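Most newcomers find our protein records easier to grasp once they have seen one. To make this concrete, we reproduce a full record directly below:

===
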Amino acid sequence: MKLIADWKQALKGLSVKAHTAQVAIVGTWLALPEDMRSAVPVKAVLVVVAIVGAAGVLGRIINEDKSDADPH
């Protein structure tokens, strides 16, 4: 296993932020008391987690290198 060349910059990337958000959403959901969980439909939580996951996939495949950006 090899690290990517710019591994020190990984935390700035959309994919890492999105997957971190997924973990936070699911962790928060699981930490809520049952009566609070029942106020939010499980389907809504799953949809939000799926959307954030899709953003993570997009963040992984798009080029986020700022050096290629057009300054104008």
Remarks:
- The chain has a mean pLDDT of 86.
- Residues 13 and 65 are 10 Å apart (CA to CA).
- The longest helix spans residues 42-61.
